[in-house]
Amino acid sequence: MTTVADKPIRWAVLGTGAIARAFAEDLRLLPDATLVAAGSRSPEKGRAFLDAFGSPGRGKVHGSAEELARDPEVDVVYVATPHARHKDDCIACLEGGRAVLCEKPFAVDADEARAIADVARRTGKFCMEAMWMRFHPLIGKVCELVAAGRIGRVRLFTADFGYPTSYDPESRFFNPALGGGGLLDRGVYTASLAQMLLGQPSEVVGRAAMAPTGVDEQETALLTYDSGAQAVLTSSLRSRLRNEALIVGTEGTIRVHEPFFAPSRVTLTRHVEPVGPIPEAAGGPGGWKAKLRRSPAARRLVNDVARPLVRMLKRDSETFVEHVPGGGYQFEAAEVMRRIRAGERESPIMTLDDTIAVLETLDALRRSWASA
């Protein structure tokens, strides 16, 4: 008998927009994956999608999530519809007996995410948010370096994500009915990486600039953790930001170079900073060493020359480089297939509880805007 463990995993893609095309393009990098169906309200678009990314002339086009979920030839559905559709589409696929990989954000708020998670757990079907960043090899390397204590205890995490987007009130970026706004489209990346590294914050505050449609077009958040660490996160639909992440520890820093959500380069810099007061000189308070230490000129020499020189000599950098094929979406798809073949219902790298926790942070941030 042939089982899911020894045959290709059969994928369907619900939605045929830009992110669906990028995912389907990378899916072709996996020899044990096959695209067998597409969901689209337009039969012509669905057929063109399958012809471009599947086998020309083959595969089924379905007009709804419910119809697609009834297709017995489908093992897992990649949900790539607008944000506001994610809850209903995920639940329809899960209730229909299909595993689900849902594009970020998993839902528009934590309550919707909990509703999806409840159905996934009740039906026993695999379900995961497509936070593809978490499965990128260099992001895994960053987590490995932090866990190994290579930069000491993490004290500060900063990340920003922003590119100029033309204002169109009907687009998915600015239309509130489609789940628009910079926080759900871009800020979710910074919040997810912060959660991956630091866990759940104890306090969330922030401010946002709003677009004429009422969605956020730029925002900055300050997250505080019980460990004493802080995170400063910024996202924007209207401005080009650095699109980097910096993890600052007591013994070094890790810089995730642009774009931090799909990096090709990470730099670790270790440093041991001289801290604390200058010790008392031997020979008593009247000795020549003590007088020298009390001298303003001598202190300037120490602070401006000696200490920076010591820092430079004690600092060393290491760069990690990895150029991956495609856009990087294949790593999340491979994780889904690995877990399905193992009979697992969640990925330990992106659990449903992790997804809910990130959306709780975004909810808290939006409450902070409202109370400002």
What is the secondary structure topology, with strand pairs?
Layout: E1 9-14, H1 18-27, E2 33-39, H2 43-53, E3 60-62, H3 65-69, E4 76-79, H4 86-95, E5 99-103, H5 110-123, E6 127-130, H6 137-147, E7 154-162, H7 182-198, E8 203-210, E9 216-224, E10 230-236, E11 245-249, E12 252-256, E13 265-270, H8 288-294, H9 296-313, E14 316-321, H10 330-341, H11 352-370
Parallel strand pairs: 1-2, 1-4, 2-3, 4-5, 5-6, 7-10
Antiparallel strand pairs: 7-11, 8-9, 9-10, 11-12, 12-13, 13-14
Helix pairs in contact: 4-5, 5-11, 7-11
Q: Could you walk me through the main structural features you see in this protein, from its secondary elements to its overall organization?
A:
The chain has 372 residues and is an alpha/beta fold. The protein has three domains: 144 residues, Rossmann fold (3-Layer(aba) Sandwich); 135 residues, 2-Layer Sandwich (Dihydrodipicolinate Reductase, domain 2), CATH 3.30.360.10; 39 residues, no CATH class. It is built from eleven helices and 14 strands. The strands form two sheets. The chain has an eight-stranded mixed beta sheet, covered by helices on one side. Strands 3-2-1-4-5-6 form a six-stranded parallel beta sheet, sandwiched between helices. Helix 4 runs parallel beside helix 5, helix 5 packs antiparallel against helix 11 and helix 7 crosses helix 11. The longest helix is centred in the C-terminal third of the chain and has 19 residues. The radius of gyration is 25 Å and the shape is globular.
